[in-house]
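ok so I'm stuck.
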Amino acid sequence: MGKKKYGQKWIVIWTSTLLILFFSYSFAFSRTVTQLIPTLTITEEYNDNYFQTENNTQEEYITSYGLGFSAGFLYKKINLYLGYNPEYRDYKNLDDRDGFEHYVSLDGEFNPSKYTNINARLAYTTKDDKESGETWENTAAIYGDTQFTQNTNLDYSHFYSKSFDQQLRTGTYNEHELNRATVGITNQFGKKDRMGLNFSYELDDYKNSNADGYTRYNPSGFITYWITPLNGLDSQIAYRNTDFDESFDDIETYTGHIRYLRKFSELFDGYLKYRHSYSQRDSGDHHIYHPSVGFDWETGTDSHISLGIGILFSEWDNDNDDSNDLFFEMDAYKIFHFSKRGSLSITGSSGYSEAGDDAASLGYNLYYKAGLKLNYQMQKRLSSNLFGSYQRDEFPESDIDRTDNIITLGGGLSWSPLQWLRLNLSYAHTDFDTNTSQRGDYTENKVIFSVRFIPSQPVWPTPESSRQSLENEIYN
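replied:
not stuck anymore, here's the structure
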């Protein structure tokens, strides 16, 4: 209890200090825009399988009352946005979980020079329950890019997360910290000719001993070169070292590919590709030979569709069986605007690695993910959406031999009968199926209805549609 009170006290002091700074700047600079807006939100949530179990499912109703504040500070090359949302949650069946929770977020956009852009975000919650069904996450992130010369750019980022969530491998809930740092440099030496180097470092540390904890670093390089206006090549090489906290079976992986590109139009290329992967570990080496054919369709600045088909030839130096498997390559994101009122967003990806991010200890992993979301403006103040997604994870090593399938379907309505009043209704259905004994199948239905009172539009910018925001909504 003492730590919780200390955390709440720290949040109040931190928030008050930031607000004082915001208002101080607003008087100091005539061009500064500062805004403080209170909001009131009442939410009712129903879940027919709160603990996501196969048997003995638990229904739960949760009523939330939130009084939040948002503040914006805009001045020349600096934009800051602060959100503070205290909330009281009332559980119908799990009475011991009733209580207040506090959420604080701080977003910043900085342009320290003409050639440098930096974005930062902090998100903190006082929620610290460590019980099944509860999830929370505290994050801090910074992303930046600097243009060194007319043709050379440097990108850099750091992401930190401390969370309590459900583990893919076992279905149990665990607390862990994730640190991820990346840096990359790219040089463009022709209209479509590029080359670059990247490096990433990642640490996933569990509070209690866990087989999925790891440390990883990954240098890589790439080049794309068009020999003629219609014929080109691209290639990439990478090294990946994964060091497990609870195992001596660490993995070193060397990968590389080369593609022949044939341009059919300004936005459409076909390709022939060969990729090779070689992994070393104490339990046995692994070779993957992967020829494929496909196409790249650049549909816009931030959207593209890349599809291919090939065969994975796997050779193992252990008890795992060699295999020849058909594999569909997929990397797609596109928004189709079919009318002034409606749009369809699609996303999809596939891949394979010797140790995945979400269940590293399960070893060699193949995955497919695809989803879509349909948005439609039914009336001026009434909008709707429908979404669906499918995820498949395969862990084919002989001592694991596991396949997980997740189907998610849902939709929602948003109605603003008055400028200061918003009503939202959403529904989501999740079906999880697995062939492992480590965790059970489950289905879950969740309904959320909320009423929000907001006196005016905040200066907080409306987030632009992005692939990451779409996938966060339809996959999670």
